[in-house]
C-alpha cells in the first residue's frame, strides 16, 4: 500500500496531465458531435427526400464500422499527429448515436400533439423548440450519454498518434512493464465513464422534468 501511495505522489503531475488531456479530447469531440448531429437529426425529420435520409444514415453507419485505430491513422497525413486528428476521428464516431437518437426522439412525438400545436398557430420553429425538442430530450440525452461513454473508451487509443490522455499511462506502463501505470490509466478511464454517466443522468432527469412539464402545459 505504501508503494502505491509513493507512486501516486511521484507521478501525480503526469496523472493529472493525462487526465486533463483525456477530458479535453472527450469534451471537444462530444461537443462538436452535438453541434453537428442534433441539427442534422432534426433536419432529416423534416426532409422530404427519403434517399437523402437513407444516404446520411448509411454514411454515418459506415463511419462506425471503421476500426478506431485505422480511423485515427487515416487523418495523420492530413493533420499530423497530436490532438487534431484524434479529435476529428472521435468527432466522426460521435455523430451516429447522437443523430440517430435525435431523429428517433423527434419521430416519436405523437401526431395528435403536433396537430394541436398547429391548431394553436405554432410555426414549424415554434413546434420544434416548444414541443418536439422538449419531448425528445430523453432520447437525445441518452444518445449523448452513450456517445460520451464510448468516446472516453476510444480516446485511450489516441495516445498512439501522440494525442496523450489516459492511454499514455497504459501504453507507457506496458512499455516499461510497470503495472501501476497500467492500473492508474485503466481505473482513471473507468472513473471518468462512471462520473460522466452519473452527471448526464442527473442532467437528463433535470431537463426532462423542467422542459417536459413546459411542453405538456403548452400543448
From TrEMBL:
Domain ABC transmembrane type-1: 19-200
Top-level taxon in the UniProt lineage: Bacteria
Pfam families on file: BPD_transp_1
A GO biological-process term: glycine betaine transport
TM annotation in the entry: 28-49, 69-93, 135-161, 181-203
Membrane topology value: Multi-pass membrane protein
GO cellular component: plasma membrane
CDD domains documented for this protein: TM_PBP2
Keywords: Membrane, Transmembrane, Transmembrane helix, Transport
Keyword Magnesium set for record: no
Subcellular location: Cell membrane; Membrane
Entry annotated with the keyword Transport: yes
Family stated for the protein in its record: Belongs to the binding-protein-dependent transport system permease family.
PANTHER family linked to this entry: GLYCINE BETAINE/L-PROLINE TRANSPORT SYSTEM PERMEASE PROTEIN PROW, OSMOPROTECTANT IMPORT PERMEASE PROTEIN OSMW
Name of the protein in its database record: ABC transporter permease
Annotated source species: Paenibacillus agilis
Amino acid at each position: 500500500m505504501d508503494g502505491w501511495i509513493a507512486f501516486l505522489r511521484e507521478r501525480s503531475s503526469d496523472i493529472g496531465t493525462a487526465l486533463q488531456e483525456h477530458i479535453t479530447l472527450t469534451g471537444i469531440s462530444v461537443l462538436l458531435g452535438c453541434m453537428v448531429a442534433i441539427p442534422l437529426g432534426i433536419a432529416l425529420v423534416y426532409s422530404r427526400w427519403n434517399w437523402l435520409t437513407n444516404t446520411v444514415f448509411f454514411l454515418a453507419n459506415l463511419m462506425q464500422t471503421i476500426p478506431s485505430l485505422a480511423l485515427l491513422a487515416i487523418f495523420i497525413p492530413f493533420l499530423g499527429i497530436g490532438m487534431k486528428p484524434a479529435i476529428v476521428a472521435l468527432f466522426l464516431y460521435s455523430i451516429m448515436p447522437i443523430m440517430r437518437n435525435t431523429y428517433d426522439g423527434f419521430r416519436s412525438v405523437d401526431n395528435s400533439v403536433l396537430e394541436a400545436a398547429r391548431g394553436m398557430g405554432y410555426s414549424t420553429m415554434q413546434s420544434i423548440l416548444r414541443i418536439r425538442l422538449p419531448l425528445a430530450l430523453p432520447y437525445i440525452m441518452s444518445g449523448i450519454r452513450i456517445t460520451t461513454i464510448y468516446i472516453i473508451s476510444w480516446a485511450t487509443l489516441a495516445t498512439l498518434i501522440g494525442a496523450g490522455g489516459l492511454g499514455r499511462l497504459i501504453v507507457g506502463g506496458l512499455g516499461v512493464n510497470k503495472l501501476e501505470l497500467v492500473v492508474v490509466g485503466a481505473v482513471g478511464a473507468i472513473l471518468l465513464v462512471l462520473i460522466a454517466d452519473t452527471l448526464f443522468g442527473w442532467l437528463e432527469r433535470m431537463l426532462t422534468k423542467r422542459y417536459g412539464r413546459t411542453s405538456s402545459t403548452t400543448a
